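Worked example 3 (structure in, sequence out).
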């Protein structure tokens, strides 16, 4: 049995275990859940979905920004299409299909492999680091106690990671080391510290908007005072990062919801927190589907057979 098959099976087992525990908690608290007074606010739900969609549009813009800084030329509609259509690959088991689609459609748009690889690395690296900073730092500082005892070592990684991230020279060294191991020619990145700093600030801004969107989403189901917005925003950012880093389940499925339910349980009844965490997947998927529908209008995705087949190997010049 190959390692990829073992990982997929392990991912399914993790999802099943998390859903079983969440289901048991809901079953044990079913009477309390039935008697709970929900406050559905559909206009707020629409606003939350639109804010999630706007955040994803900003991520597509920032990816285009870094691609252009690397010397490639791509329009925003092209970046929008590539971003949203390749994003669908996150929900396919294997953790590689999003990147396969990214590479194939990027090359189709005239972007070289090195700019694609570099832009993906920079983008996801900063998205993870800033999400870790916004999420874990806010939760640990505001809640302290048990969370501080569990997560304080992660706080040490945040300034170190961000310091490395805003230094293009260090990034270029790491990337060229990887290219050398792959037998490829070294590259010179056209990135400046100012570019990386701007990109980092952009990602922090995206997490702020995403956090506001999650707060509005929760308020559409259960009223939460404005003072609770920082904690809700931090909870979603931390859950997203943990789900992304899990490497077991597609799109962090199950793990993200479990983390959200755990964190919301600090100030909401457990069954209510579980229901909100499960519905949060529907909320963010709705935002993704809006972008996907628009991207499809811009241009349909390439044939699956074309994406699945390896692209021809480039010869170094």
């Amino acid at each position: 049995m190959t390692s990829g098959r073992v990982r997929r099976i392990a991912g399914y087992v993790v999802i099943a275990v998390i859903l079983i525990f969440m289901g048991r908690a809901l079953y044990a608290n079913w009477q309390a859940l039935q008697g709970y007074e929900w406050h559905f606010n559909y206009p707020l739900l629409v606003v939350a979905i639109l804010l999630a969609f706007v955040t994803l549009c900003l991520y597509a813009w920032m990816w285009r920004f870094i691609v252009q800084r690397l010397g490639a030329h791509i329009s925003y509609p092209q970046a929008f299409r590539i971003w949203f259509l390749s994003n669908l690959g996150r929900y396919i088991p294997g953790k590689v299909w999003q990147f396969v689609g990214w590479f194939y459609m990027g090359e189709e748009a005239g972007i070289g492999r090195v700019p694609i690889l570099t832009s993906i690395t920079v983008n996801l690296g900063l998205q993870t680091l800033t999400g870790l900073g916004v999420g874990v730092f806010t939760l640990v500082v505001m809640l302290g106690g048990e969370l501080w005892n569990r997560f304080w070592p992660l706080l040490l990684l945040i300034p170190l990671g961000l310091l490395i991230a805003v230094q293009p020279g260090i990034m270029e060294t790491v990337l060229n080391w990887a290219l050398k191991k792959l037998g490829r020619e070294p590259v010179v990145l056209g990135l400046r510290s100012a570019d990386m700093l701007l990109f980092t600030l952009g990602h922090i801004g995206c997490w702020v908007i995403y956090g506001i969107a999650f707060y509005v989403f929760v308020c559409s189901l259960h009223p939460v005072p404005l003072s609770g917005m920082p904690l809700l925003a931090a909870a979603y950012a931390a859950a997203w990062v943990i789900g992304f880093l899990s490497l077991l389940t597609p799109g962090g499925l199950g793990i993200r919801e479990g983390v959200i339910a755990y964190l919301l349980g600090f100030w909401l009844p457990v069954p209510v927190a579980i229901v909100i965490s499960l519905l949060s997947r529907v909320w963010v998927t709705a935002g993704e589907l809006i972008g996907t529908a628009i991207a499809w209008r811009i241009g349909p995705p390439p044939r699956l057979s074309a994406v699945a087949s390896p692209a021809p190997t480039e010869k170094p010049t």
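Notes: The first helix runs from residue 3 to 28. DSSP finds 13 helices and no strands in the chain.
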